[in-house]
TrEMBL record:
<dbReference type="InterPro" id="IPR001345">
    <property type="entry name" value="PG/BPGM_mutase_AS"/>
</dbReference>
<dbReference type="InterPro" id="IPR050275">
    <property type="entry name" value="PGM_Phosphatase"/>
</dbReference>
<dbReference type="Pfam" id="PF00300">
    <property type="entry name" value="His_Phos_1"/>
</dbReference>
<dbReference type="InterPro" id="IPR029033">
    <property type="entry name" value="His_PPase_superfam"/>
</dbReference>
<feature type="region of interest" description="Disordered">
    <location>
        <begin position="1"/>
        <end position="46"/>
    </location>
</feature>
<dbReference type="InterPro" id="IPR013078">
    <property type="entry name" value="His_Pase_superF_clade-1"/>
</dbReference>
<protein>
    <submittedName>
        <fullName>Histidine phosphatase family protein</fullName>
    </submittedName>
</protein>
Length: 253
């Protein structure tokens, strides 16, 4: 249930904007200086990259996946490999991922480049949406139009009889914070998850009221958002990065 990103260069055509800023050994002895966060003085300078999985066949069909375990397409694998090359330049310290196959396979591409082990956690799965799962966008509108409209208005809705968005944040955000707390100063954590879970987690970590979370917008396949640590907590530094802007038809999959 989402518009699909093309395999285009990152914004500006020069790779990721954090690349190419010096060449000093980092704490693991590799070449390349960790770029400083933009305007986030204070705190420990940590950052969290929340990365959505690559394309699946149900994305192409605009079919709501939720917690259904769907594999990546060949295009999805290629998207993950391309994005992994960009994210590896950030020299991440740790990778944590949903245990669903589409997220685990996406994380595996970055792990292969960084030689980091991936910690898999079911708490990072996509929203369980009960009867909505497996339905196309059009079928959801036809069968659950009132429920869909209430959700879009920011009302607390158990879509298909499943989880509330706040319940997704309740399980996912603490996992992200747990792994972020283990980072060194100025460290980077990559979290590989799903569109809806990423949006609710960002909303929770930014301290936004849940009815404002929809305002964050969705993530295209294999794009990411970045939270940086400042003196007053977490700040949103990038959102839906990794491709040129594209329409997002839906992202809770």
């Amino acid at each position: 249930m989402e518009g699909l990103p093309g395999d285009r260069p990152a914004r500006g055509g020069q790779g990721h904007p954090w690349q190419g800023r010096g060449a000093l050994p980092d704490h693991r002895g590799r070449r390349g200086r960790r770029p400083a966060l933009n305007g986030t003085k204070g705190g420990r300078g940590r950052r969290v990259v929340l990365w959505r999985h690559g394309q699946t066949s149900w994305n192409l069909e605009r079919r709501f996946q939720g917690s259904t375990d769907i594999e990546l397409t060949e295009t999805g694998v290629a998207q993950a490999r391309r994005a992994a090359r960009l994210l590896a330049a950030l020299q991440p310290d740790a990778i944590v991922a949903s245990d669903l196959r589409r997220a685990a396979a996406t994380a595996g591409e970055l792990a292969a480049l960084t030689r980091l082990e991936v910690s898999h956690d079911a708490a990072l799965r996509e929203t369980y949406a009960g009867a909505w799962q497996g339905l196309t966008h059009e079928e959801i509108l036809a069968q659950y139009g009132e429920q869909y409209a209430a959700w879009k208005r920011g009302e607390p809705v158990r879509r298909g009889g499943g989880e509330l968005e706040t319940e997704v944040a309740d399980r996912a955000a603490p996992i992200v914070l747990h792994h972020a707390d283990k980072l060194p100063d100025d460290g980077t954590l990559v979290v590989v998850s799903h569109g809806g879970t990423i949006r609710t987690t960002i909303g929770r970590l930014l301290g936004l009221e849940s009815h404002h979370w929809e305002g964050l917008g969705g993530l295209s396949n294999c794009c990411w958002s970045v939270l940086g640590e400042g003196a007053r907590g977490w700040r949103l530094l990038e959102h839906n990065a990794g491709t040129l802007p594209e329409p997002v038809l839906g992202d809770d999959d």
